[in-house]
Design goal:
Belongs to the cytidine and deoxycytidylate deaminase family. This protein is an alpha+beta fold. The chain has five helices and five strands. The longest helix is centred in the N-terminal third of the chain and has 12 residues.
């Protein structure tokens, strides 16, 4: 489905609902994410903080876990929201995670409108690059 025909409001509402389940006692910055999958499912995630900050789980990690727990597939449309339900950009690490699970064709709702993943993470490094490696695995 083309990005302009997609139910972005519905996906943002699902991300906002996911955000309400966030566990963010340290930063108090709740995040929710939701994405459509190529088979019609919707997956979601929220951030889950930890006193050892480096092991905090972001909303996108939860979403990708949901994707693989419910059958895998490719993400087609993605949105991430803050504690007020406003659209935010995923961080660099999460952009890489999204590339890995949606690729160049993934449509991302950004604060400036819908963008293809190729604009969200230009010149991305992915599985095809690893296939070019030499030596034993």
């Amino acid at each position: 489905m083309a990005a302009e025909e997609f139910d972005w409001a519905g996906l943002q509402a699902r991300a906002t609902e996911a955000m309400r389940h966030a566990y963010a006692p340290y930063s108090r910055y709740r995040v929710g994410a939701a994405a459509a999958v190529d088979d019609g499912r919707v997956v979601a995630g929220c951030n889950v903080e930890n006193a050892a900050y480096g092991v905090t789980l972001c909303a996108e990690c939860g979403l990708v876990g949901d994707l693989h727990m419910t059958g895998g597939g490719l993400l087609t449309h993605f949105v991430c929201v803050d504690g007020d339900g406003a659209v935010i950009m995923p961080c660099g690490r999460c952009r890489q995670l999204l590339w890995e699970n949606g690729g160049a064709a993934l449509h991302v709702m950004t604060p400036l409108g819908v963008r293809p993943m190729t604009e969200v993470l230009p010149q991305a490094f992915g599985p095809d690059d690893l296939a070019k490696g030499e030596g034993p695995v």
